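Standup notes
- HV: blocked on the assembly model, inputs below
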Amino acid sequence: MLEAYVPVLLFVLVAVGLAIVMLIVSALVAPSRYSKVKLEPYECGIEPETDARDRYSVRYYVIAMLFVIFDVETVFMFPWAVIMDELALFGLIEMLVFLFILVLGYVYAWRKGALEWV
Amino acid sequence: MIDTIVIPLLKIAVLVNGVLVAVTFTVLMERKVIAWAQSRLGPMRVGPYGILQAIVDPIKLILKEDITPAKADKWMFTLAPILSLVPALVVFAVVPFGGDELFYVTDINVGLLFIIAVTSIGVYGIILAGWASNSKYPLLASLRASAQLISYEIAVTMTLVSVILTAGTLSMIGIVEAQQEAGFWFFFVQPVAFVLVLIGGLAETNRAPFDMPEAEQELTGGFHTEYSGMRFSMFFLAEYANMLVISAVVVVLFWGGWLRPFPNVAALSFLDFIPSWVWFFGKMFGFLYLFIWIRATLPRYRYDQLMRLGWKILIPIAIGNIVVTAVVKVLL
């Protein structure tokens, strides 16, 4: 059972190894010429005045919170979907109740304007 | 020992090489197709019809200087491209390229869940790249990109639930076998889900018309503005590898994977002489072409339109699709 995951682990190792080898090879063959201007953050040639990590729109935060809620709820549906054949009508009604509550939350978020961007 | 380590390692080596080569040729194909769509010739100088461009481009990228900006967070700046590239490659572990055991690395019973889980790790690479660059455009672009990715991830994941309902399994190979038993590709029973996954896939891979994170007119280069050389090409590789993944997943879920059209119709059995992997790669190529075609055709979405499409249109349709699929399945 768990043996099926050994190749996945190997794959992760190979992929990480490949990434590191690529960086090393590039570091060996690529030129490196120092220049102060080249190392500045890109801002269309103007010297940056402030730190880039400034305030940003709170909407990103709302989206991230909604994502956490909805994604977790979706994960609950996966096991149900797999054994739907055995659960039959009972499973269907259970899931409809679950989805109804999910949709309630979704409608609430919509009404509150959490899904509006501007 | 040989069965658990050596043979998988050989398969992985072949697969990783295959993905890297496929990516370089996909880039060439994209340039060529878009050029033809715009009545240009595209790359013509290197080799016949510019075919060797696919080999020259990576060599050029390796030879370019890899700059770490003075203000950047050095370790995070290096970690970000690795975090993008590794998940994009690892996903291929569960993609079945053919019916034979030779054509897939491993068959885990939660294959689809594995794909969803691993592809979402890529978001960390993007947000980390924007943060570590310590520059305005990358930071804004990475925020946009991550908000876009997580929004469409919900729609896609919900849509996949209805496909799992139809197949009754999470294993990628099991899904194809379910289509063989059913006698038809799942596209014919789940066309809505197919369209949703296709749209979501375009958004997940930051492809046009959803290439907001790289909207060059407003954000210069997107989240990898500060990147150059090898670390830039790792982001590039990851992006195109993700494109291959989405094509492969769509083929497995909706277009019968390695199966021929209408696998149960005996009249079509003369098609059986075509090996299974040819079917798979043929379909995959078709979807890659479709992605490029869409990029050549459609203008870019505005950001608020993009969010509206994801949250207010795709998610309700996905939920509705789950309910309809489940009800139909119980009734039949």
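- HV (later): unblocked. Chain B has a mean pLDDT of 87. The longest helix of chain B spans residues 2-37.
- Next: hand off to the docking folks.
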